[in-house]
Write a structure and sequence with these properties.
It comes from Blastopirellula marina. This is ATPase BadF/BadG/BcrA/BcrD type domain-containing protein. InterPro entries: ATPase_BadF (IPR002731), ATPase_NBD (IPR043129), Euk-type_GlcNAc_Kinase (IPR052519). The structure is a single chain. The protein has 11 helices and 11 strands. It is of the alpha/beta class. The longest helix has 25 residues. The relative contact order is 0.14.
Length: about 325
């Protein structure tokens, strides 16, 4: 996709959202400005090239596209534009390599790959916009009105991912292990985690941890228990969520300062597993964001593909923006 080839009504577009867990795809017909009709949907496995490798990522994307075409009457329908929002492509070398692999498959006349962060930005307005992803990991992106972008976080679970599902689960697990090694009688949050994993001693807990092939994902899943217990007024769980919300709010504040955006112009779009359940953690985050004069509007993005389509139809071009170091 390039500025010289804008999306027009009647054209067929392909939108793909790929991450570390799954790849979703849809084929749609453009009706009018910011309106479209979905013709087919597809899904496949993970397509983050840094997590699963370039070849597996490419095959997952192709499988998702093939799956979307199954529902079309004309399965060989030609797509005019395609936009692939893929996790793990912030590095330009990785992004270029994936773009080349997809282009040779002739999936569309005009094709672009962007990091999965970019569709979080509001492409329907020139006003400053911010986005947060809080799933297994965490990362934030911001755009000001002067053609500049900035990214904060996304360091991975070893160095960062503060405020993420992994960070929340890790704190719950640390609390549980501490309880087991001190009193030997876990209660509250610790007792629920022990019950979930079927353990009763610190030794059993450590043995259980060693059995996981994907420890990061398993620890992140504990965030659900922490949120549930916080809703039941478990003060340890509440404290963990408050810390996580503060860490995410700090990402937005860091971006706001770097981009020189006034506090009153904050609009935040959030995505990720922590915001997809019952809205409890979202309310905690809103309180953390609303410090001082900062009164942000917060929108939960429940369907990432719609954001990819929005970005595709709007003609938003990330390459036209300066990414601050």
């Amino acid at each position: 996709m390039s500025p010289s080839t804008p999306v027009q009504p009647g054209q067929i577009v392909l939108a793909v959202d790929g991450g570390g867990t799954k790849t979703a795809c849809c084929i749609a017909r453009i009706l009018d400005a910011n309106q479209w009709e979905v013709l087919g949907n597809g899904q496949a496995g993970p397509s983050n090239p840094r997590a699963v490798g370039m070849d597996i990522a490419t095959e997952a994307i192709l499988l998702a596209v093939k799956s979307a075409r199954k529902g079309l009457e004309a399965k060989d329908i030609a797509c005019d534009h395609a936009l692939f929002s893929i996790a793990g492509t912030l590095d330009s070398t990785v992004r270029s390599a994936l773009t080349q692999k997809l282009r040779v498959r002739r999936l569309a006349k005009n094709l672009a790959v962007v990091p999965d962060l970019y569709p979080l930005l509001d492409c329907t307005s020139d006003q400053p916009s911010f986005g947060l992803i809080a799933g297994t990991g965490s990362v934030g992106i911001g755009r000001n009105g002067n053609g500049q972008l900035a990214i904060a976080g996304g360091w991975g679970h070893i160095l960062g991912d503060d405020g993420s599902g992994f960070a929340i689960g890790r704190e719950g697990l640390r609390y549980t292990l501490q309880a087991l090694e001190t009193t030997g009688e876990p209660f509250g949050l610790a007792a629920v985690i022990c019950e979930q994993w079927g353990v009763s001693t610190a030794y059993e807990m450590k043995t259980h941890l060693a059995s996981f092939s994907d420890l990061k994902s398993e620890v992140a899943q504990l965030s659900k228990i922490v949120v549930d217990q916080a809703q039941k007024s478990d003060m340890t769980a509440v404290g963990i969520l408050l810390k996580a919300a503060d860490d995410l709010a700090n990402l937005v504040q860091q971006l706001r300062v770097r981009l020189d955006v006034p506090e009153k112009q904050i609009s935040v779009r959030v995505s990720g597993g922590l915001f997809q359940r019952d809205g409890f953690f979202l309310e905690v985050l809103k309180q953390a964001l609303g410090v001082g004069e900062l009164k942000p509007t917060v929108e939960v993005l429940t369907e990432p593909l719609n954001c990819v389509l929005e970005m595709l139809v709007s003609g938003f071009q990330p390459v036209q923006y300066e990414l601050l170091p």
